[in-house]
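Help! Submission page says 'invalid entity' but I think these are all valid:
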Amino acid sequence: MTRFRVAVHIVPRKGILDPQGKAVADALHSLGFGQVHDVRVGRQLVLEIEGDTSQDVSASVRAMCDKLLANPVTEDYEIAGVSPA
Amino acid sequence: MRFGVVTFPGSNCDDDAYIAVTEALGAEGVRLWHKDHDLQGVDVVILPGGFSYGDYLRAGAIARFSPIMQEVIEHVRRGAPVLGICNGFQIACEAQLLPGALLRNASQMFVSEMVTVRVENAATRFTNRYTNGQQLRIPVAHGDGRFTIDDAGLQRLQDDGQVVFRYVDAGGRPTEHSNPNAAMDNIAGIVNARGNVLGMMPHPERAVDLRCGSGDGLALFESMLCAVAA
């Protein structure tokens, strides 16, 4: 068993009204960053987790996201990185 | 006729709900604890408002997995009634007892005010003492009340009479201004397809006596009494 460090990004699903993201996009536009099309503000979780391989760990974290960490109605998640802790 | 009121860590309207059913309604109230697996034979379960588990992760996301909720889910499967108020509505959605989700108010502000809601379906076991189109004054107090669902889900709610309450203005119109959180279609409360779970953001337990500004919420509890007695 190895200890892995896993980062999960959870963001509001595209198409769901994200007032915070919109406010940030508006602020970026007013600062001259006109090339920004869309901003969504979410959260990042960092987990330390035991597993045999990074594939096993990713599968476990996906199960955690489906069951608890992300809301299947309104959020998308992405396992952003799995590395030895 | 026994009403069970669940207390989660962070619930803060459990006392209000208990007093509403015992003192205002005159029914029997039973305190239920989140760690228990026993509903003590209650007829109705109330999931009260508050901030269970500090709203950590998402409002209701952690409470949904507490021991008592496994019993509440079984209670719903048996067709028995559950009323989720505010945080209780959020918990019911997280537990998939109700469709959709409650997101941060579009204003990003906590809203605490008296609102007007219109009864859209008076044929439920929670609203049979109201009439369709009746306007009620009931307070809201929440930061995450923006009801959100996919298009197909919204269509089903509308087609099947599952929208029970909408935010309206004094003239009874569901306007943007009368919608305290930018909920889709001004939705303030819904029932599940089977009709035994009601989730609502406004607090009927805070509107059971004119001394608290409105008595319009009392008939909701009386409706449940009629439905269970019937």
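Support: the input was valid. A stray whitespace character was the problem, and the output above is from the cleaned input. Residues 15 and 77 of chain A are 15 Å apart (CA to CA).
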